[in-house]
Amino acid sequence: MCWQAKDATVKIPFSRGERLIVVHAGYEGGFIKGASLLFKAGSASGDYHSEMNSSNFLKWMKERLIPNQPCNSVLVVDNTPYHNIQVH
Description:
The strands form 2 sheets. A two-stranded antiparallel ribbon has the order 1-4. Strands 2-3 form a two-stranded antiparallel sheet. It is built from 1 helix and 4 strands. The chain has one helix spanning about 55-65, and strands spanning about 20-25, 25, 30, 35-40.
């Protein structure tokens, strides 16, 4: 799926080349300034999904999301595996 501005054009890649991992958060006023995370997937196997894990997600939340989120915000997180970790 793709979310985009009405005046934007998205080009579908024709190759299985490099991938980018994009993490961001938004609210009714748009994307939260300073909350973006963008990095190049380093997996040579093509399985870049494991590179976004609970450690990266928690670090992003602590360093980028929480310090920049608007006051009186409510954070809604889905059940993606890296959003949850088991603590012993």
